[in-house]
Amino acid sequence: MEMSTPKPSKRNFKSKLVLQITFPIILFTIVTLQISKNISLKKSPIILTSLPTNHVELPTNYQELRPKKVVPTKCDLFTGEWVPNMEAPYYTNESCRVIQEHQNCMKYGRPDTDFMKWRWKPNGCELPVFNPDQFLDIVKGKSLAFVGDSVARNHMQSLICLLSQVEHPLDISPTKDDNFKRWYFESYNFTLAIFWSPYLVKTQDNDPNGKAGKTFVGLFLDEANEAWTTQINGFDYLIISAGHWFFRPLIYHEKGEFMGCRYCEIGNLKEYSLSYGYRNAFQTAFRAILENENFKGKVYLRTFAPSHFEGAEWDHGGDCPRKSPIKANELNLEGENMEVYTAQMEAFKEAQSMAQKRGLKFGLIDMTRLMLVRPDGHPSIYGRPAKMNEIWPSDCVHWCLPGPIDSWNDFLLEMLKSEEKIFH
């Protein structure tokens, strides 16, 4: 007897029909959501911005989520963060011949080395570490001069140390004065110079009260210092900077006459703001460059690099003992640092506008904010031999070599490379 196949009931048939319709819908929904998720992740990385501690944490797979081939339309080199660079430093205090004693931190026993091992990482792009071969190829047959104070000289020495990986320059200075040095890279016909002018304008020592030993520096705010203005003709690049000397007691002159002072508290002389003298000095310096018809080079302003005295003033035991950078969002530019930075930028923007009419190019190496968060790279007490019963002020103004100041040349090279692309 043959067994017949039972007919499906209406209830079973309906259940199967529901499953056949529902399953594809669910599957389609899952696939669609996954595709949408993937597209969203590829468009932009996950960035957490609402943490109450102001510290930004990224997911562990952040590098995988970042866009692979997205090129930003505009990159602000000067906005970013200091990140570890274990390959640094690229020279030592023994391999570089031009490090001055007061910046030779390793020679005088600084015990930590982490302050050397950082590089600047701009937001949304990369800033390559200085390449000495590339730099020398660009400046071959050219010349570059620094104008400013001892921090400008510190910068020049950093550049020489980095370039010494390729070639040690010849000292062709016309004088033994370290404030007016010239170096020559013979294989590249490249000349490097420093012109000492901490105020950029003409100066003289004043003693308006007639008291012995109480001397104020007088600044002629409308007359540029000829010690450098007569030397820049023929230079292809000029890096101008100044800052820390303006924090001293000063007498201001205009049109050859006393007009007031800063930090002097002298009788009926008018007291001016710190920014007044600073802004006017830069305006005069820029005007001297623009009015010099024999100067055809490119001008860079390197902005003020703040000092980092903590605990007290420089002459009352202040020191800079930190051993690592501060997060960029944990310290604001304020007070006198903001005052001089603002004055400097105002003078620069005016000059940049006038330079366009003159056919000159003015560029900006904006170091102020990113160096504000580098209190770890100063010589402190390691810029001289330790001696019993002898106390010297800590140096929280200059920078150890090797050290953070080496990164300034990362910016300089990147700007020179951009300029080369424009003209080629």
From TrEMBL:
InterPro entries: TBL, TBL_C, TBL_N. The keyword rRNA-binding does not apply. It is a single-pass membrane protein. The keyword Membrane applies. It is found in: Membrane. Residues 127-415 form the Trichome birefringence-like C-terminal domain. Its main location: membrane. Keywords: Membrane, Signal-anchor, Transmembrane, Transmembrane helix. GO terms for molecular function: O-acetyltransferase activity. GO terms for cellular component: Golgi apparatus; membrane. Belongs to the PC-esterase family. TBL subfamily. This is Protein trichome birefringence-like 19. It comes from Spinacia oleracea.
